[in-house]
Amino acid sequence: MKVAVVGATGLVGSKMLQVLAERNFPVTELIPVASERSVGKQVEFKGKKYKVVSMTDAIAAKPSLALFSAGGGTSLEWAPKFAAAGITVIDNSSAWRMDPSRPLVVPEINADVLTKNDKIIANPNCSTIQMVVALNPLHKKYGIKRIVVSTYQSVTGTGVKAVTQLMNERQGVAGERAYKYPIDLNAIPQIDVFLDNGYTKEEMKMVNETKKIMRDDSIRVTSTTVRIPVIGGHSEAVNVEFEKDFSLVEVRSILQSSPGVVVVDDLSAQRYPMPMDAHEKDEVFVGRLRRDESQPHTLNMWIVSDNLRKGAATNAVQIAEYLVSKKLL
Asked: Which of the following is catalytic: 126, 139, 279, 297?
């Protein structure tokens, strides 16, 4: 199977190559794609070097599948051109996520919506993915009424420039900045641009994408997203109100048996999920499970996952694996 990776030189694109190799996805020919200024550069995949090609050359090579991680503008322009050539696109940008004609997929939850006719498939936002993986099995059992989520997000979610800014600040070196403010020893309560309602685009992604993935517009969601000086993964404090009551024993049992979820919740040993433990892992880690004592039927939980893997590259590859397994490619 010919596979194109668009944005192959970026943080997520590089991680896609790594995950494709680790999971032994059946790549017979790799086509790395990047912007014009990167054409001719080389990337490594399974010990071999591959030359980066242009978008036009990639379409001409007729891959079966293209994994996109090159930004919304690029996806809006090029994904339809790939799709018109019969290539299935799995897109990691926000460009297609809320398009009602495009599936927005987390394989553990709603891969069943996919058909052979879906040529542009949206990969959800990183912070949304990890939250819904943990919440969906509980929603099936108890029915979610309302979610209040605050995120603590890794600088890797912004990209290489942000990682460089953090490291430069840590070493006292001047350099290019990804953020308006210092990120080391700081927390920035803004991810993406502000919208007219006072929320950021990232916050509204969590609101809207959660409903679409979980196929339930009645779920009320409110979100605050914060960038912190961490590399390794995103963390989330989630307060979830259910229709029905629950027992913590049953909640733990449901989560422990849910695909892609690992419960780390041992207060006596001070064990709970942390970004450094989630780094380079594909699972969603859940802990600090406890009742909200201020109102009925409400649970507090702490959710951590590697945003470059399950939050981006791994989820995209899992979608591709599903398409292969169901002969939809």
From this structure: 126
